[in-house]
Amino acid sequence: MSGAQGDTRPSRPASFGVEEEADMNDVTDELRYQGLDELLGKVEDEMTTSIVTLDPDTRTSDAVAVLRRRGIGGAPVVEGRRVIGVATVSDLSALMPKAQSTGPFLRPQRGRPDWCVRDVMTETAVVAVPDEPLARAIVRMDDARVDRLPVVDASGRPVGILAREDVLRAVAKAVRRQRPEGHRPLLLPD
Question: Cβ distance 100 to 108 under 8 Å?
Answer without folding.
Answer: no
